[in-house]
C-alpha cells in the first residue's frame, strides 16, 4: 500500500533507507557534473588564445585571442628575429661585398673606356690641284684650289663632320673663301678623307700678281698663300672645333695637280 500511495518515492520506497539516501546523492552529483560541464565549455569558449613558451605564457596581442593574424594587418606587422638567429649571420658577407665593389668598378671603367669622348684628329693633307683662269680685260687671276683633309676617329662611336670652312689670304688680304656643310660621318675607329674646293680671285688688291702670273719668260709662277681652315665635329652631344693654318706655294701660271 505504501508503494502505491507514494508517487515520488515509488521506486525508492521499496529500498532500504540507506540505499535510498545513496541514490539521492548520485543523482545530485550527476546534476552538478552536467552543470559544471556546461560552465567549463563556456569558459573555454571565452578563453583567449595563449602562446605557451615554457613556464610563462602571454596572450598574443596581435591575434586578439583568435590565434590568427587579421589579413588587413599583414603588411603592417614586423617579425622579431633573435639576435643569434643564423639568418642574421650570413656566410661570406665580406667576400660578396668585395666582389660587388670590384664588379662595379670594372663596369665603370669599361663604360668610361668605351664611351669617354676623344678628340677627332684632323690633318691638313695639302693642296690636291689648282685650276687657273685669267680674266684679261679686268687683269684678274681666277683659281679653284682643291685641298684635302684627313680625319681619324679614335672613338668607339661615329662622329659627324658638320662643316668645313676655309679662307685664303695673300699678303694679309682675303682672296677666297669656301664652306661645306654636313660633310661626312666617320665610323668608329676609322679614317676618312675629305676634299673641298675654294675659289680664289686676285685682281685689284694686287694688280702686279696678274702681270707676274702671265709673264711668259718665267717658267714657274709660284706665290705664297695662307690657308686658314676650321672644322666642326659633333659626337655624343658634344661639339668640338679644330683650326688649321698652313702656308702653301701654288703655281698661278698654269693648271697643276699635286700627287701625294
From TrEMBL:
Question: Ranges for the Transmembrane protein 106 N-terminal domain?
Answer: 26-94
Q: Which InterPro entries match?
A: TMEM106, TMEM106_C, TMEM106_N
Region of interest (Disordered), ranges: 1-36
Q: What is its main location?
A: membrane
Keyword terms: Membrane, Transmembrane, Transmembrane helix
Which Pfam families does the record match to this protein? TMEM106, TMEM106_N
What does the entry list under GO cellular component?
Answer: endomembrane system
Residues in a coiled coil are none
TM annotation in the entry = 95-116
Subcellular location, record wording: Endomembrane system
Compositionally biased intervals (Low complexity): 1-15
Spell out the Basic and acidic residues composition-biased ranges: 17-36
In Swiss-Prot or TrEMBL terms, this protein is called: Transmembrane protein 106C
| Organism in which the protein naturally occurs | Betta splendens (Siamese fighting fish)
- Name the gene for this chain: tmem106c
Amino acid at each position: 500500500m505504501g508503494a502505491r500511495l507514494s508517487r515520488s518515492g515509488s521506486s525508492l520506497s521499496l529500498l532500504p533507507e540507506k540505499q535510498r539516501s545513496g541514490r539521492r546523492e548520485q543523482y545530485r552529483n550527476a546534476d552538478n557534473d552536467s552543470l559544471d560541464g556546461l560552465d567549463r565549455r563556456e569558459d573555454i569558449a571565452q578563453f583567449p588564445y595563449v602562446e605557451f613558451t615554457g613556464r610563462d605564457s602571454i596572450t598574443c596581442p596581435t591575434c586578439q585571442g583568435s590565434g590568427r593574424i587579421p589579413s588587413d594587418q599583414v603588411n603592417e606587422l614586423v617579425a622579431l628575429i633573435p639576435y643569434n638567429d643564423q639568418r642574421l649571420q650570413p656566410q661570406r658577407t665580406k667576400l660578396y661585398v668585395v666582389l660587388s665593389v670590384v664588379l662595379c668598378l670594372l663596369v665603370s671603367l669599361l663604360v668610361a673606356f668605351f664611351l669617354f669622348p676623344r678628340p677627332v684628329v684632323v690633318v691638313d693633307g695639302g693642296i690636291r690641284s689648282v685650276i687657273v683662269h685669267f680674266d684679261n680685260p679686268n687683269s684678274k687671276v681666277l683659281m679653284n684650289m682643291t685641298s684635302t683633309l684627313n680625319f681619324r676617329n679614335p672613338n668607339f662611336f661615329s662622329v659627324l663632320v658638320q662643316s668645313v670652312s676655309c679662307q685664303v689670304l695673300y699678303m694679309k688680304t682675303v682672296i677666297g673663301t669656301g664652306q661645306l656643310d654636313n660633310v661626312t660621318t666617320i665610323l668608329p675607329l676609322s679614317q676618312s678623307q675629305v676634299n673641298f674646293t675654294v675659289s680664289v680671285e686676285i685682281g685689284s688688291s694686287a694688280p702686279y700678281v696678274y702681270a707676274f702670273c702671265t709673264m711668259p719668260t718665267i717658267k714657274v709662277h709660284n706665290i705664297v698663300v695662307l690657308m686658314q681652315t676650321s672644322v666642326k665635329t659633333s659626337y655624343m652631344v658634344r661639339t668640338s672645333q679644330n683650326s688649321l693654318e698652313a702656308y702653301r706655294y701654288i703655281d698661278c701660271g698654269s693648271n697643276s695637280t699635286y700627287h701625294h
